[in-house]
């Protein structure tokens, strides 16, 4: 395999994006003009409850097991799964009939967690749809090992932490499943899109689904994609081992308009992320677009299908162009939102600096 090809094709996407800034007269025989797809906003929202599996044998033995079928849940795990149906549980799930769909990864620990909940809820025959995109973040060279120190265990998350800050190109060493943030984001996003597209809005126009997945996969995808990532809450949970067994992360939104983090392991998350986090998200979205475009183009070239190559070039061009065009407005909206919050705070507390910020934004 030519290892320089991904970088070459990524460069093609970036150069193409840069050339858009300069108007060029059409030449004879030039390809048809790139068309920008219409953007349909305000699609129906989905509330998706992402649930980590119950305690597994790997959890007890500290084995890094991320490949299907994986280890089963323990006896304690079976109790935890059943407790999801108990109304006295602060994070109990709704009745199975409430959800438009119930999903799980290919690993048996998620499927058996879902089945334990359904049985306890009196609906053991309710179907569970298995999606490979919900599988755990691949451990790469650490797969099957037992880390002997906290530092060694943290190696598993070094690349994903970089992805969380927009550096999708950082490799997950030894992984052919999630070799980088682009590949991981693609496959988990595909699963979320499948869940969304298979659901039907209720009378309130909203979708409700539940998906059983894994601690690292849930945590990283959410922090990589939501509009209001709460980094303080994330790193606090990381010190405690990520999400606890049967811990939940709730998001709301849709693939068109994006996703908002509603709650993390039972703690509500503010919809407005604040000025610094808001600006970070704006820059993150701008950084990610060319990385995703380069990855998709490189994959298309690897496949060798001219139709797929042209489609990847078109999609990559649109994605980068859209990110560049959306960036200034996103920053303005972030600053305006922060100014509005400061004005409200100043009005409520009489804060001098808040009054100044409000007057400057008027």
Total of domains: 2
Give the ordered list of helices and strands: HEHHEHEHHEHHEEEHHH
Instruction: Summarize the biggest pleated sheet.
Output: 7 strands, mixed
CATH superfamily of the largest domain: Phosphoglycerate mutase-like
- Major sheet: arrangement of strands: 3-2-4-1-5-6-7
Q: What is the quaternary state of this protein?
A: single chain
Mean pLDDT: 86
* Count of extended strands: 7
Distance between the termini: 58 Å
Tell me the CATH architecture of the largest domain.
Answer: 3-Layer(aba) Sandwich
Strand coverage percent: 5-15%
Radius of gyration: 22 Å
Per-chain topology:
Elements (H helix, E strand, L loop, with lengths): L4 H15 L26 E7 L4 H5 L13 H9 L17 E4 L3 H13 L8 E2 L19 H15 L16 H17 L9 E7 L1 H11 L5 H9 L8 E7 L3 E7 L2 E2 L6 H29 L2 H44 L2 H10 L1
Helix pairs in contact: 1-9, 1-10, 3-4, 5-7, 9-10, 10-11
Overview of the structural elements:
The protein contains 11 helices and 7 strands. The chain is an alpha/beta fold and 362 residues long. It has 2 domains: 46-268, Rossmann fold (3-Layer(aba) Sandwich); 273-362, no CATH class. The chain has helices at 5-19, 57-61, 75-83, 108-120, 150-164, 181-197, 215-225, 231-239, 275-303, 306-349, 352-361, and strands spanning 46-52, 101-104, 129-130, 207-213, 248-254, 258-264, 267-268. The longest helix is centred in the last third of the chain and has 44 residues, at 306-349. The chain is globular. It has a 7-stranded mixed beta sheet. Helix 3 crosses helix 4. Keywords: Hydrolase, Signal. Residues 1-27 form the signal peptide. It is an enzyme of class 3 (hydrolase). InterPro entries: His_Pase_superF_clade-1 (IPR013078), His_PPase_superfam (IPR029033).
